Amino acid sequence: MNKNVLIKIITVILLLFIYTNAGAAKSVNAAASAYTFSSTYDARRFTTLTNETRCIVCQFQNLAESNAPIAVSMRDKIFQLINEKKSDDEIKTFLVKRYGEVILLKPRFNPMTYLLWLFPLGALLSFAFILRKVYVIK
Amino acid sequence: MLNFFGTIALWCALAFSVIQSIPPIIGHFRNSKRLLAAARPAAYGQFFSVLCAYILLTTAFITSDFSIAYVGMNSHPLLPFMYRLTAVWGGHEGSILLWILLVNIWTVIFTLFERNNALLPLTTAILGVVNFCFLLFLIFTSNPFLPADRLLTGSDLNPLLQDPGFVIHPPMLYTGYVGFAVAFAITQAALLRNEVNQAWAFVTRRYALAAWCFLTFGIMLGSWWAYRVLGWGGFWFWDPVENASLLPWLAGTALIHVLLITEKRGAVKSWAVLLAIISFALSLLGTFLVRSGVLISAHTFASDPSRGVFLLILLAIIFTISLALFLSHLQSLQAPKSAAFGIISRESGLLINSGLLIIAMLTILLGTIYPLIIDALQMEPISVGAPYFNMVMTPLLFILMTVMGIGPLCKWQQQSINILLKKLLKNAAISIIAAIALLFGVTNSLSISAVISLTLSIFIIMSLYGSFRIKPGMFFAHLGFAVLIIGILLSSLLNQELEVKLKPGTSAHLGPYQFFFVDLSIANGSNYRGVRTTFDVMKEKRKVAVLQPEKRIYFVRDMVMSKVDIHPSIFRDLYISLGEPLDDNAWSVRIYYKPFIRWIWAGSVIMIFGGILSIIGYNNGRRS
Amino acid sequence: MTTIRNIKYIIPFTILFILLALLWAELSSTRSYAFSSGLSGETIPKFSLPSLYGSGNVTNKDLGGRVVILNFWASWCSACRSEHSMLMKIKNKYHIPIYGIVFKDDPSDAKSYLSERGNPYVAIGSDEDGITGVDFGIYATPETYVLSPEGKIIYKQIGVIDQETWDNEIYPIIKRYQ
Q1: Residue A138: its pLDDT value, please?
Q2: Predicted complex: ipTM over 0.90
Q3: Which one of B592, C6, C35, C64 has the fewest beta carbons within 10 angstroms of its own beta carbon?
Q4: From the CB of residue A133, how many other CB atoms can be counted at a distance below 10 Å?
Q5: Shortest distance, CA B275 to any CA of chain C (angstroms)
Q6: In which domain, by residue range, is C166 found?
Q7: Three-state secondary structure of chain C
Q8: Are strands B565-567 and B559-563 parallel, antiparallel or unpaired?
Q9: Please, which pLDDT band fits residue B622 given cuts at 50, 70 and 90?
C-alpha cells in the first residue's frame, strides 16, 4: 500500500467527518410546532437547540421530549431568546451559565473534551497505520 | 417454606459448580480422563438445581407469596398473570438467577451437541467457574429468597415494564450475552490445550452466531419497546443502558466475521481469540454495569457498594487470567506463511471491518463512560448524549458500509484489482443513480448524508448479487442491514411531528392525514385507572385508522403513564401520544407521521434470519 | 515486529486497568451530585412579575437595600408544604424579609394555599410561564436565594430549608451582611 493511496484514503475520511455534520436540522420537531416562529430557519434552530439541550430533572431526555414543568419553561425561554435574535452560542452560554456544561447533550469542544472528540478520527488513523505495518510485513 | 427450599437449591447448584470446575481443570493438567469426565454430569446436576430454584421463585410470584422480600418488592396481587411470570426477572436478584439459569441451559446444549469434541470437558469446566462466581455473588449479595422482614402488601411491577415487548427483551439479551460466555469458554479451553485452529473456529463460530442472533433480537426488542412505550417516537436514544447492550453486539459481529477467516484460512487467530475475550467482557460489563446502576448514577451504586465491589473484583480476576493465558500463547497463535493474504482480498475486507467495528465500539464506550471519567477526576460534570453519538458514528458507519460493499466481491487470498475495479465502478454507478432518483422522487430534496447513506445501502445490496445460493446467510444478514439503514435514514428524513391542543370534535392535519379527536371515555384495568381517547385518521376523505391513546394512573406505585397508540404499516406509522389534560376536556397531544420506520425492525429480523441460516449451514456440514 | 508484539501485550492490560481504576475511583467518591453554582456572586437577573395580591408588579428593584431572601414555591409542590413552617419562623422569629415567586401556578390556587397556611412573604410575584425561574437557573421548587443589599446572590438553597441548614449555613451568611 503506497503513500499516495493512503493519503487519498485519509483525505476522504477527513472530508466525511466534516461534510456529514454540516448544517442545522432539516425538519422541525413537535416541540417547535407549539410556537409560531418568524421564519422556518428559526424553527429549525429551535429544533436543534431543544434536541441538544438536556432536561436536567429527567434521567436522560432532551428538552424536546420532556413534559417536566421546568423543561416547558426552558423551551419558552429558548423561544424568547430566538425572537430576541440571540445566536445559538449566546443561548447555549445563557443556559450553561445557570445550569453548567452538563445541560448540553453535545459537549462543547474544549481541553476537557479533546479526547472525546478527537478519539474516533485518531483511532481510525492509528488503525490505518497499524494496517500499513501489518501489510508491509506480510 | 419456599424460600428455604430455594436457598437449598442454590447451595446445591454451588456445590455442583465446584465439581464441574475444579476436578476437570486439575484433570487437564494431570491428564486424567476420569477427572475430566466429572464435568458433564456435574453440569447436569447444576442445571437441575438452578432450574428448581427458578421454578420455586416463579411459583412464589404466581401465588403472590410476599413472605419473600424480592417478590413483595416486584409484584402485587392485582398484577396480571403474564406479568407475574416475567416479574421474576424484573429486579436485580431475579435477573442474576435468570442469567445463571441461561448459562446452565447453554452449557447443557453444548454438552449435548459437542459430545465428541475433545474441548468439551474443559469448556464445561470453565463455564462451571463462571457460574461458580455468579452463584457466590447471588447467594451472598443478591439472594432472591431472602424472607421479608416485615409484612409487605406488594409494590407492583413498574408500569413501564408491563408490556409484551418488554417481557421478552431481557431474556433475549441475556441469552445473547451468555452465548458469548460459551464462545469465551471454548476459546480458553482451546488455549489451554493448544488447539486454537480451524476446528476450534468452526465450533466457536456456530455458538457465537447463535449468541449474536439472540443479542440482535434482544436489542431490536428494546428499541421497539422504547418506541411503543416511551411516547416520543424515538427508537434509539444513545443512553447508557442501550449503549451497554450495543457494545457486545459490535464486538460479537466482529468476532463472527474474523472467525470466518480463521475457519477458512487458519489466519488471524490471535485477533479472533482476543475478540472472543472482549465480547464476553463486554457482555458481562453490559449486564452488570446496568444492573448495578453505575451508568445511570454512580450514587445509586455507591449506596450499596458490596454488590459493585464483588462484581468489580470478579471482572478483574476473570479478565486478568484470560488475558494472561492469551498473551502467554500469543507466539503459538501465529499463522503459517501459507495463510498469508494480500491487501485486496476477502480476508482483508473482513479484517478491516472488524477493526472498524471495534473502533465504533470503543467510541461508544468512551462516550458512555466519559462523564464518569470527568466526574471521577473532580472536574465540572458534562453530558454526552445523542447529538454527539449521531455525529461521530455517521462517518464511521459510512466507511464500514463502503468496505461492506467491496468485501464480498473479493476472492480469498488475493483479488485482482482490475477485475474488482470494473465491478466496483459498475455497482457504484448504479447505486448513486438509483439513490439520487429515489430520493428525489420520494422527498423532492437531496442532502449529502441522505445521498451517501442510500447510495451505500444500495451498494451493499448490489454486492450480494450471486450469493443467494452459495451464502444465503450472508445474503440475508447484509440485506437486512441495508434495509435497517434505509429505514433509519428515510424515517428521520421524512419524519413529521406536531404538538397541538385538541378537544373532542376538533382535528389536526399532518402530512397527508387528518386526525379527528372523536371522544373520551373511562378505561380502567386491574391495577390502573385511566382515560381513553379515540381518534379517527382520514386520508383523502377515507378513514384509514382508529387510534386510541390512553393516560393511566397505576395506583400502587402512583405512577402516571401515557399509553401510545400506533397504526403500523410497511410504508409508514401513525402515532399519537397524549400529553397533559387541559380545561374543557381538551388535551395536548403529539402526533407523529413516521414513514418507513418499520423497515428498521424488519431489517433486524432479516439480519437475524441470515444469522439463523448461517448456523443451519453449519449443521448441514456446509460452511456458510 | 517486536514493537507490535509488545503493543499487543501492553494495550489490553492498560485498557483493562484504566477502566477498573476509574470504576473504583467513581465508587469511592461520595460527593453528592454537584448542582451548578449558577449565578452565585452575580447580580440577580432583572424580572418584573404581576403581584399575587393587589395590582402592580414585583420587580428586582424591590429587593435592594438590605439582606433579603427570595423563595421559589408552588401550591402543587409537596416539598414546599414541609418548608412552610420554617419560612414562617424566618419571618416571625428572625425577621428577615422573604419575597416569594410562585412558579407555574394558578394564582387562585396559590392564594388558597397561603390563606390556609399563612403568608410568610413581604410580596409575591406570579411567574406563570416559569421563564423567570429559568432566568434564575432553578431546577424545581422549592429553591431559595439569599441576596446581599447590593442585590447579589450570596447563597442558593436547592430543596427544603430546615432548621439545621438555617443555623449552620444560611443565618451565619446573613449575619455577616447585617
Answers
A1: 52
A2: yes
A3: C6
A4: 12
A5: 11
A6: 48-177
A7: CHHHHHHHHHHHHHHHHHHHHHHHHHHHCCCCCCCCCCCCCCECCCCEEEECCCCCEEEHHHHCCCCEEEEEECCCCHHHHHHHHHHHHHHHCCCCCEEEEEECCCHHHHHHHHHHHCCCCCEEEEECCCHHHHHHCCCCCCEEEEECCCCEEEEEEECCCCHHHHHHHHHHHHHHHC
A8: unpaired
A9: low
Same domain, C74 and C144: yes
pLDDT tens by residue, B143-157 = 999 888 877 777 777
Q: How confident is the model at residue B592 (pLDDT cuts 50, 70, 90)?
A: very high
Domain that holds residue A51: 3-137
Rounded-to-integer distance, Cα C140 and Cα C127, Å: 13
Going by C-alpha positions, the residue among B80, B88, B72 that lies closest to residue B153 is: B72
The phi, psi pair for B68, rounded to 5°, reads -100, 125
The domain that holds C66 is classified in CATH as 3.40.30.10
Domain positions in chain B are: 1-160, 163-332+343-409, 416-495+600-624, 496-596
Domain annotation covers residue C39:
no
User: Cell numbers at residue B251, please?
Assistant: 464486538
Interacting residues of B274 by C-beta distance below 8 A, sequence separation 6+? B326, C12
Going from the C-alpha of B281 to that of each of A109, B271, B285, the distances in angstroms are 31, 15, 6
Let me know whether C22 and C52 are in one domain: no
Helix (H) or strand (E) holding B250: helix B240-265
- Are C92 and C161 within one domain? yes
The single residue listed with the C-alpha cell 428593584 is C61
A-chain residues near B451 (CB < 8 A): none
| Band (B583; pLDDT cuts 50, 70, 90) | confident
Cα–Cα distance for residue pair B295/B301, rounded to 1 Å: 9
Nine cell digits for residue B382: 458534562
Q: Chain C contact for A56, CB < 8 A?
A: yes
Beta carbons within 8 Å of C122's beta carbon, 6+ residues apart: C97, C98, C99
Mutate to test the interface with A, among B382, B453, B492, B591 (most CBs of A within 10 A): B382
> Would you state the pLDDT for residue B593?
93
* DSSP three-state, residue B587: strand
Which CA distances in Å does B175 have to B43, B130, B169, B403, C46?
A: 18, 15, 10, 30, 58
CA distances, B554 to each of B91, B525, B587 (Å): 19, 9, 20
A94-98, B27-31, B272-276: which range is least confident on average? Answer: B27-31
Given a cut of 70, is residue C61 above it in pLDDT? yes
Picking from A70, A78, A95, A135 by the largest number of C CB atoms within 10 A of its own CB, the best residue to mutate is: A70
This prediction has a pTM of 0.92
Q: Which three cell numbers stand for residue B366?
A: 468512551
Q: Flag whether pLDDT at B55 surpasses 90.
A: yes
Task: Determine the average pLDDT of the residues in A115-131.
Answer: 90
State the residue for C-alpha cell 421497539.
Answer: B224
Cis ω for the linkage preceding C142 (within 30 of 0): yes
- Of A110 and B90, more confident: A110
The CATH number given to whatever domain includes residue A27 is 1.10.8.640
Q: Which helix (H) or strand (E) holds A29?
A: none
B312-337 pLDDT per residue, tens: 788 888 888 898 899 888 888 887 77
Identify whether residues C53 and C105 lie together within a single domain.
yes
Give the whole-angstrom CA distance, residue A96 versus residue A115.
Answer: 21
| C-alpha cell read off for B34 | 476420569
For residue B442, give Cα distances in angstroms to B336, B436, C28: 53, 10, 55
Point out the least confidently predicted range of B79-83, B431-435, C134-138.
Answer: B79-83
Residues of C in contact with B375 (CB under 8 A): 26, 29
Among B305, B316, B372, beta carbon nearest to C22: B372
Is the separation of the CB atoms in C33 and C99 below 8 Å?
no
Confidence of residue B450 (pLDDT cuts 50, 70, 90): confident
- pLDDT confidence band for A60 (50 / 70 / 90): confident
Task: Indicate if C67 and C8 belong to the same structural domain.
Answer: no
